[in-house]
Amino acid sequence: MTQLATHRAIEAVWRIESARIIGALTRMLRDVGLAQELAQDALVIALENWPLTGVPDNPAAWLMTAAKHRALDRLRHHKLQQLKHAELGRDLSIERELAATDPIDALDNPVDDDVLQLLFIACHPVLPPEGRVALTLRLLGGLSTDEIARAFLVPEPTIAQRIVRAKRTLSAAQVPFEMPQKDALPERLGSVLAVIYLIFNEGYAATAGDDWMRPALCDEALRLGRILAGLAADHSEVHGLVALMEIQASRARARIDAHGQPILLLEQNRARWDHLLIQRGLTALDRARALGGLLGPYALQAGIAACHARARTPAETDWQEICALYDALAQVSPSPVVELNRAVAVCMAFGPEAGLAAVEALQDEPALQRYHLLPAVRADFLFRLGRFAEAAVAFERAASLTRNIPERTLLLARAQTCQHKLLPKPDTIG
């Protein structure tokens, strides 16, 4: 195997196994920052040795063992320091003292438990949302600081500072490496699910930049969601979120054209939707339903996505069912964005005048004043009503608010279409 191939193999193993390694070390050391540092040391050792000795038969186990040895060395060193500082151990064998406190036996626990607990630590409510996202992607997504910075279009030092602050905050708060108590689980689980879905949404519809989508972020969010669904299988909203992400991800190939430009939902070639992902999503939604969680916010959104997935053509979409689901969502998770999405369903179910009335009621909503989709949705309704001059202005307003270049191009193109509609028709020769 060439050196390049070896490095690629190391990178692939690290991307898959790093979360498990860091989780195991965090349980040993009770310090997520130190755990990440020592896991990185194991990666460096692999980069130095594998090109000479070849890739081991079980590279994941090799990395885990190397990381554990680094952690044990650190623990023994720390223990020796403690013994010296306290002037203890003169009458005892240091090895016996270490054996009594050595946590190596605890490493026999299932590694996926470590991943789950690490996920709950990275998404702990003591951290601000931006810190949770950065730390989750770094520890569990296996992304580099540079990759995270490019994904969210912020400078790399900003992401690095967020990660450092997050680690310090967790250390200062002495967050235990354990699953939260039963009474605290809903709050903590909600934080975890919110971070995963935030990551997915940034990949599904990028906030800014040259790309309409960032598939790598969608993939990472789906991977984390699937891990969580396997490890917290009794919680319905976990399956609701997975169902939502699976079904939305199924449209990825149909959402952009050959030039990377957006294709709106009703214009997509549904033959290009990934029906395996749709089926996985519907199965996850059935699990949420079986657990009594059909009215959870993620399950309700997954139900809406399922209505689209089951329709072979846009005309077959059950828009009245979607309206009913949005009504329920507005009850359990009220927000201006939910109301805006509901307005789209109202337009499709009951006509553009009804949709426009719902949108007009949101015009003074403070949270939507800089939200580009408010004028974009209003523009679409005006276009459907033949009010092309007003629609053009609204599309241009929406274009001025978005920071995503393909989306801006699409909105300006729709504004141009409105302008063409306003041109006088040429005389025809009979």
Structure summary:
With 430 residues, the protein is mostly helical.
Write the layout of secondary structure elements.
Blueprint: H1 3-29, H2 32-53, H3 59-85, H4 94-101, H5 111-122, H6 129-139, H7 145-152, H8 156-173, H9 185-204, E1 208-209, H10 215-231, H11 236-249, H12 275-290, H13 297-310, H14 319-332, H15 336-350, H16 352-360, H17 373-384, H18 388-401, E2 403-404, H19 405-422
Parallel strand pairs: 1-2
Helix pairs in contact: 1-2, 1-3, 1-5, 2-3, 6-8, 6-9, 7-8, 9-10, 9-11, 10-11, 11-12, 11-13, 12-13, 13-14, 14-15, 15-16, 16-17, 17-18, 18-19
Characterise this structure.
The protein has a domain at 3-103: Rna Polymerase Sigma Factor, Chain: A (Orthogonal Bundle). The longest helix has 27 residues, at 3-29. It is elongated, with a radius of gyration of 26 Å. The model is unreliable at 87-111 (pLDDT under 50). Helix content is 69%, strand content 1%. The chain is built from 19 helices and two strands. The protein has 430 residues and is mainly alpha-helical. Helix 9 runs antiparallel to helix 10 (215-231). It comes from Silvimonas terrae. Residues 120-170 form the RNA polymerase sigma factor 70 region 4 type domain.
The fraction of residues assigned to DSSP E strands is under 5%
Q: Total number of β-strand segments?
A: 2
Cα Rg: 26 Å
Provide the helix percentage: 55-70%
Widest beta sheet: strand line-up: 1-2
- How far apart the termini lie comes to 76 Å
The oligomeric state of the chains shown is single chain
Classify the secondary structure makeup into a structural class.
mainly alpha
CATH structural fold name of the domain at 3-103: Rna Polymerase Sigma Factor, Chain: A
CATH architecture of the domain at 3-103: Orthogonal Bundle
Q: What are the segments in which pLDDT stays under 50 over at least 5 consecutive residues?
A: 87-111
Report mean pLDDT, rounded to a whole number: 86
